[in-house]
Structure formats: structure tokens, C-alpha cells
């Protein structure tokens, strides 16, 4: 999910806001704020979540932040653009690092945890090529970025549902 959003979120908001009349400088500052929020979240949320065996509430928090950011971009982009950028940054940065940690939580054996992490990373990079292309097709078809943001909203909803399966009691059942 994170990698799928990555290619879109670090390119299209710039042009999306420029379509709304923003300058290159203004939209670039918004992107910088998103990147700073992402880095802060990626570093801080795992520290905050480290004492909890069940990290799903933390993942749901990051997914809610993504949902809020994409909903804002889709439906009221100019209302609180700084807020949407911060929400997306917090959501994407925290979700990425927490997802890697949850993958490692599933196995006590380091080799198995490493194999799962490698599969997630490799598969993630392969899947990450699709959404930017798909959002570009949606933009060409509709003339706006709204459909692309809604596509990401739907993706976030799917992941929110999938996170239910990451219950710690199920970790030892995976072999």
C-alpha cells in the first residue's frame, strides 16, 4: 500500500495543486511538508508502538490519517491543504515502518521474518508501478485528479479491513 501511494503522492499533488492555481514554489513547499511529516512519523510511531504486542491500533491510526488526507485531496483540496499534506505524511510514513515491524512480529525465527520482509519489499516494488499509471489514466479520462484520490481512498479502506487479520494470536499459526 505504502509503495503504491509513494509514486503517486510524491508527484501528483504538485500538479494537482498547480491545476488549482498554485505556483510551483507553493506546491513544492506543500510536498516538503508532506515529506517532513512522513519522516517524523516513520521514526516516531515505531518507538511509540514498541511496547504493544498488538500494533493494529497504530496501523489503523496511520490508515485513518491516509484516509483523511486522500479524502481531503479528493473532495476539498484547497480547504486545508496543509492539513491534508500532514495527514498523508503521517499516515504513509508510519504505515510503512509499522508494517515492516508487524511482518517481523509474525516469526520468531529471523530467517523466516527476513524472507517475509523481502517478499513484502519485492512484491511492493512490483505493485508500486501500477497506481501512478492507473491514476494518470484516470486523470486523462476525467480531466482531474479526484478519481485518483478516490482510488487511493478505496485502497486504504481495503487495507483497513486486511489489518484485522494481523492479530498477534495468529502469529504462531503461520509456518
Supply database-style keywords.
175 residues, mainly alpha, Growth Hormone, Chain: A, 78% helix, MFS_trans_sf, transmembrane helix
Question: What can you tell me about this protein's structure?
Answer:
- With 175 residues, the chain is an all-alpha fold.
- It has one domain: MFS general substrate transporter like domains (Growth Hormone, Chain: A).
- Helix content is 78%, strand content 0%.
- The chain has helices at residues 2-9, 12-19, 24-49, 56-75, 81-105, 110-128, 130-142, 146-163.
- The chain is globular.
- The relative contact order is 0.17.
- It holds the Pfam family MFS_1.
- GO terms for molecular function: transmembrane transporter activity.
- This is MFS transporter.
Shape: globular
Number of domains: 1
Distance between the termini: 24 Å
CATH fold annotation? Growth Hormone, Chain: A
Rg to the nearest angstrom?
17 Å
Specify the biggest β-sheet. Answer: none
Mean pLDDT: 82
One letter per element, helices H and strands E, the order comes to HHHHHHHH
Task: Give the strand content.
Answer: under 5%
Question: What percentage of residues falls in helices of 4 or more residues?
Answer: over 70%
**So, CATH architecture?**
Up-down Bundle
* CATH C-level class: Mainly Alpha
Kindly state the number of beta strands.
0
Tally of individual helices: 8
CATH H-level superfamily: MFS general substrate transporter like domains
Transmembrane segments: 58-76, 82-104, 116-135, 147-167
Pfam family, one: MFS_1
Keywords: Membrane, Transmembrane, Transmembrane helix
Organism: Acinetobacter baumannii
